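Friendly challenge for the regulars: who can give me the structure tokens for this chain first? No prize, just bragging rights.
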Amino acid sequence: MAKESVNFFKKIIRWVRLFLIRRAMTQIVRQRKVISYARARQIGLLCEADGRDEMAFLNRFIEKLEADGKQITSIGYFSKKHMTDISTMPEAVQWFRRKDFSMFLRPKAAQLQNFARQPFDILIDLTSAKAHQMKYIAAISTASFKAGSHNQDYMNIFDLVLQVKENCPVSEFAEHVIHYLKIIKTPGEK
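First reply, four minutes later:
Bragging rights claimed.
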């Protein structure tokens, strides 16, 4: 009986989160348009702290994008259990915790609100489905083109949705995103 009530409670929390995200999306005005990787100048990057290997990859990934002439603005999310080794976290990423968001997923920190309002050419979401706060940021972002992983709950947030294995490493997913962004052509581009 207790297990059923826990599952019911989790379903209610999931429904409330999805409701809040969908409602927030309806209040955002953004000009959707396809922008190729070649034409993109400003890229917003959402990430999360999952492990030492992923932190090292994020450093290299951001450097690679910057070497391609992209201006990168990145924010990351970490929970208390991932705070043990801050020295490995990329300095190019501004990190936030649960306390920086309201109970209703809204960003409290001005930096998060500013990030969501920035008119990025492309927003790349490298976070897992469990990072609800970051999905909220992706939903309210005014970016012209948004790319993220396939998840039934968050499909309507993104313009480019990539389906990957459930435990796909961030490095592999990021490489897939860049690969497909390079294939996409902006209307009028050859």
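Strands lie at 42-48, 71-77, 93-96, 122-125, 145-149, 160-162. The helical segments are 2-26, 52-67, 110-117, 132-140, 170-183. Your move, everyone else.
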